[in-house]
Amino acid sequence: MDRLQLEFSSWLNSTSHHQWLAAEATRLLEFAKAARLAEGFGYLDEHGKLTDTPAQTLITTRMTHSFALAHLQGLPGFAALVDHGVAALKGCLRDSEHGGWYAVAGHADGDSGKAAYLHAFVALAASSAVVAGRPGAQALLEDAVAVIERHFWAEEEGAMREAFDQAWSQQEAYRGANSNMHSVEAFLALADATGESRWLSRALRICERIIHGQAAGNGYRVIEHFSGSWAPLLDYNHAQPADPFRPYGSTPGHAFEWARLLLHLEAALSRAGLAAPAWLSDDARQLFDTACRTAWHVDGAEGIVYTLDWNDDPVVRQRMHWVHAEAIAAAAALLRRTAEPTYEHWYRLFWEYTEARLVDRELGSWHHELDPQNRPSAQVWGGKPDLYHALQAVLLPRLPLAPSLASAVRSM
What pLDDT does 152 receive? Predict the structure, then answer.
């Protein structure tokens, strides 16, 4: 199949496919509305009912970002939800004494620490709300940027520090790829929301360190955990391999996510008139290809396993919805970048699996986790609290690689 034939037949150019994606986005968004709490947004169970847990910064930021994307599409009923999220992030989720954000409202979980992972999502949510023109969003964005500048961005490392105590006096002696990956996502959004190209330069430095430096030298298997001086910690959490945020081994879902972000960064740099290194697209291909080869159907069943050891043997065999959402988005990004048939193949394959196994037409949303036999499970992630990954999977295939998601949706 030549390039012109592929472009003609690709699902990315299909009106019917776009309509299906739009309908799925609406279905996901309607389910997620029930997450509203007085203090922000909370945890939904598999039926879409709130659980007895307080508002969480992670869920509140992701919902605020997602509802801003809905508002930007011209969908009624989401503006007030964006405003509610912005107010929560300026209110009880924020540490009014020391600055920054707790994981849980009023740190009711007993953890008063400050994590880069969460602060990246605050910046993302604020950026999307700014693009959506919501009141109070600009002040939230400025607050998030100030905290990142003051505490998390390490200019000498070209990356983000990981975590601090409440008063910012003690720093965790650890560096994480996950928090830095989501910082790349946030920095792409900040570059669009602020018009400042330094965020793109910083995103490039993070990618150069973690992907072009470390992952490329490890067979394009992303190293997740590092010491404070950036020495790889390959055995980190070996005794707790199913940790939802810091699992042992390689995480194929993150390889897909990084691959997509490299292509977004390449496009953003070019759009800003800045040099985009050739390795961005080369590494994206390698990450995607390695993840597909090592993690799809690796244990004899359909789907992508959660984690692998460093010999590519499955460790945690659960199938996570977010992993497949990122695989879909990465395949779409590579297909848009290259128009090569292999990415059309993977894009369709991942969607067929997702529709058959993950999309829950009975209770709503997507099953967040399946067991190795592809039955609903809750070993790592219970319930259905995450709108962000699935919504982006149905939005990104309809959008260009740059600008970032909120700005691109505004131009749809």
Answer: 98
| pLDDT of amino acid 105 | 87
Residues designated catalytic: 254, 389
Domain ranges of the chain: 3-410
> Which parts of the chain sit beneath pLDDT 70?
1-8, 108-110
Provide the pLDDT for residue 111. Answer: 74
**Residues 21, 73 contacting (CB under 8 angstroms):** no
333 Cβ contact list (under 8 Å, min separation 6) = 259, 260, 263, 264, 284, 396, 401
Alpha-carbon distance of 130 to 145, in angstroms, equals 13
Joined together, the tokens standing for residue 220 give 């394009």
Q: What is the CATH architecture assignment of 3-410? A: Alpha/alpha barrel (1.50)
What residue type is assigned to position 374 of the chain? N
- This prediction has a pTM of 0.97
What is the per-residue pLDDT for 98? 96
pLDDT in tens, 159-191: 999 999 999 999 999 999 999 999 999 999 999
Residues 6 or more apart in contact with residue 80 via CB below 8 angstroms: none
Q: What is the pLDDT of residue 82?
A: 98
Phi, psi of 357 (to 5 degrees): -110, -35
